[in-house]
Structures are given as C-alpha cells and as structure tokens.
Write a structure and sequence with these properties.
elongated; 15 helices; 9-stranded mixed sheet; 462 residues; 3 domains; binds zinc ion; Arc Repressor Mutant, subunit A
C-alpha cells in the first residue's frame, strides 16, 4: 500500500513595522487602552476617505524583494465584503487580482519554496470574548498587514515550521515586521491535503490563525491524521476551515470554506490604482541587507564553524558588529570568539565597533590579557569609556617586562622549593604549575607567554 503524502501551503499575515495605520494617521501601538487609537477612518464611519500610508507600501515592496518576487508597478486595492462585528465598514480593504508582488521564492533547508504572492491589506479589529459578552477593541482596526502566500511546496509539518522560521527571520532582519507571534504580528494559516496518488492533490482544508510554531506543527500532524482517517473510511474530505485547540492538540471543522465568490470582491472605488515607479523600487532594493543564509555562508568561508556562523548571522546586531570590527581587526576567528562569548554574555549591548576593535587589538598585541579584555569590555558597556582609559584607571596593563617578570618567577620558585627542585631535575610538566603561580601572584596581569619562556629557560640553565 502506498503512503499518503501531505501537501502543504502556508499563508502568513505579518504586521508591517509602521508608526501609523494603513489608511489613517492613528498610531500603531501594542498594549494601549482599548479604543483609544481610533478615528473616523479606522472606525469605518460613513463618508470618510482612506489615504494610503507610504511607509507601508515601502515595507511591502521590501518584503517582496526580500522574497525574490516580481514587484508590480501597478497594483489595485479591492474590497472584500463580509459582515463581522470586528469589521465596521462591512468590508476589508485588501489586494485581490492585482497584488503588489508575485512569483517569489526562498530557500528553506536547501529546498526551494515558491512564494505565490505578497499583498497589502488592513487588519480588522480585535474581538475579546468573555463568558457573558464580547468586547471589541478597534485599536487594531486598520493596522497594516502583508499577506504572504506560498505555493503548495511543503511536504511535512516540520518543513512548514522551517519555512515559517525562515520567513520570520527575513522579515525581522529586514525590519519589515517585528513578527512577534505572541502579539499576533505573525500569524500562520497553513492549508493541507493528503493524497496517495502521484501528481494528484486531495481536497484541502485550511487551519486558521495559529500563533506559535508548536501549534503549526501539531495542528498539521493532527489534520493529516484526521484526513487520512476520513479517506480510509471511504469518505471524502470536505473543503473546510479548521480550528485547532492547543489544549487538546486536536483539529475540528469550524465551517465549510467560503469561496472567493462569497466575498464579492470589487476594486476599491476610494483608492486609485497604486503606482510605484521603478526608481523607488531600486532605492528600496539598495536598502536590503544581506539575508542571514547568505551571511552564514560568508562567515563559514572566513573560517568560522557552521554553528558559530549561524549564531552570528541570525542576529542583525551581532552580524553588523562583527563585520564592522573585522574592517578594523581582520582576525575573523578571534573577533567571532569575542562576539559569541563576551558580547553575548553581556546581553548584546549597544557598543561602538571602534572601541571593541581597540580592545581586541590590545589583547592581540599582549598589552592586556584575555581576562582583562573581558573586564574592559564589560566596563566599556557600562561607562562608554575608551578601552585605553579603562586599562589605565583599573591598572589592567599586562606585565611583559622580562626583568620584572624574572623577579616574580624567582620569588615563586623560592616559595615552592619542592616543585622547584623537581623542575630543575627536568620535570617539564611543572612549567604549567609555575606559570599558574605567577599569574595568581600578579592577579592575572603577567604575560603568560613571557612567563612560560622565562621558566623554561630557568629550567635549562640548571
Ligand atoms: Zn484611525
């Protein structure tokens, strides 16, 4: 018996990182008192006219470019008509036949996932259901969103999660969306069908509004089981909208799926076609950063391990700091160590690349020890003082003067007569012990290489 194969596509609604809403000047803010960031336009009062937020268009274009889409110089807003209390106008302004971007693709774990379309639309209000009543917060009404739709190129729940993580990272990295799932800024609606027959797709169902990767994975796994159960019983899967309960881990049919004809889409008469010129698209293209995947490859080519390259490239703050420092200190491995260990353990502070580089130079030249370097970094973060000044004030300079070190080595040898005798007899492993003693005596300020050299020579002399 052949196996059922799942075919999965994903729709994501991502909130664009703008100051104001899509068609009015109301602020976009999270967690404010309900119904305070509203006006006649986003409350859908009669007779008002929408005016389009340019920043939202810019971010939608940027998203299209980051997903390797074709950007359309002309796109058209449409009304999607339906009634719901969270939609006071009775329609949602979205893009339908003519979206701003189409035909993209991204690589996810080596597999190409095609992006069918990216379009702009407004958010509806938020319904809050309580036991005896429902409340509505219109603060979210009119918040700018993009919807990103894939082709059905995904073949497992794990792959769906991998795609979503990659997409989320791209949107965050390019400052298109904060994409915080807990704030509903990145919501996933996977659709899924199963089929045994090669090249033939089953009837698909769509899982609504998932706000965690775990919910995506579990709901898809549950839905695969449910659909296979139906088919095995000789029945047919109906096209439907599916809900998922995090508590039970089960999916159930909420309602049979509306067809797009149910919405009576038509072009939005209050907004002209959206025309963007090619020059603007080129300007936006120039602001695109290097995506994490490409950066990671570059860092591996500089000699970093896969794991280290992944960690640095996945944070835009860490990767830009890393690259800025490299311009000043061209020692990728050394610099990556400082970023991965010390910078990260300090919580990734806002720090000047020039000062960071200066501190690393001081360590590389032997002016200060590695431990002192870490101390300097922590102090720089706190006080914003220059590394040289911190070294001076805290007396952190390494002792590398041979005469001074020889004196300390002698003291340490005198203090440990037994070990000293054994060293003289040629027990070389004691060199490490004495270096340790000197470091202890100098509170870590002795140059360990120089100390080791002096002790080795001392051992040879006798
Ligand atoms: Zn408003």
């Amino acid at each position: 018996m052949s196996e059922y194969r799942p075919t999965i596509g994903v729709e994501v609604h991502a909130q664009l990182k703008t100051e104001t809403k899509l068609f009015c000047g109301c602020p976009v803010a999270f967690g404010e008192e309900a119904n305070t960031n509203v006006c006649a336009i986003c409350l859908g009062l009669p007779g008002v006219l929408p005016s389009l937020n340019k920043k939202a268009v810019e971010l939608a274009i940027k998203a299209g470019l980051a997903l390797n889409c074709e950007i359309h110089t002309k796109s058209i807003f449409a009304r999607k008509n339906y009634f719901y209390p969270d939609l006071p106008k009775g329609y949602q302004i979205t893009q339908y036949r003519f979206p701003i971007a189409t035909d993209g693709k991204i690589l996810v774990e080596g597999k190409e996932i095609r992006i069918k379309r990216v379009h702009l639309e407004e958010e509806s209000a938020k319904s809050i259901h309580e036991t005896d009543k429902s409340l509505i917060d219109y603060n979210r009404s009119g918040v700018p969103l993009i919807e990103i739709v894939t082709e059905p190129d995904i073949d497992s729940p794990d792959m769906a999660v991998a795609y979503l993580k990659t997409l989320q990272k791209i949107l965050q990295f390019e400052s298109i969306s904060d994409a915080v799932m807990a704030r509903a800024e990145f919501r996933c609606e996977p659709n899924i069908s199963v089929s045994k027959e090669e090249g033939k797709l089953g009837t698909r169902t769509e899982v609504k509004n998932l706000n965690s990767f775990k919910a995506v994975k579990n709901s898809l796994s549950s839905e695969i089981k449910r659909q296979i159960g139906i088919l095995e019983a000789g029945e047919v899967v109906e096209q439907a909208t599916i809900h998922y309960s995090e508590e039970t881990g089960k999916t159930w049919v909420a309602r049979s799926k509306e067809k797009s004809s149910d919405y009576r889409y038509f072009p939005e008469p209050d907004l002209p076609p959206l025309n963007v010129d090619k020059k603007w698209i080129e300007e936006i293209k120039a602001t695109l950063g290097e995506l994490p995947g490409r950066k990671k490859e570059k860092y591996i080519s500089l000699g970093l391990s896969k794991e280290d390259a992944k960690i640095i490239s996945s944070s835009s703050a860490a990767s830009s700091l890393f690259e800025e420092i490299l311009k000043l200190v061209n020692e990728p491995l050394e610099v990556s160590k400082w970023i991965l260990r010390d910078y990260r353990s300090l919580g990734g502070p806002d720090i000047s690349a020039a000062s960071f580089a200066e501190m690393i130079e001081m360590v590389l030249s032997g002016e200060i020890s590695r431990n002192a370097g870490a101390e300097v970094l922590a102090e720089m973060t706190r006080t914003k003082k220059a590394p040289k000044q911190i070294v001076k004030e805290k007396n952190l300079a390494q002792i590398s003067d041979s005469n001074a070190l020889e004196k300390i080595v002698r003291e340490v040898l005198d203090e440990n007569p037994d070990e000293s005798t054994r060293l003289k007899k040629g027990e070389k492993k004691l060199i490490g012990f004495f270096v340790g003693q000197v470091m202890k005596k100098t509170k870590g300020k002795a140059d360990p290489k120089e100390v080791s050299r002096i002790i080795s020579e001392y051992e040879k002399k006798y």
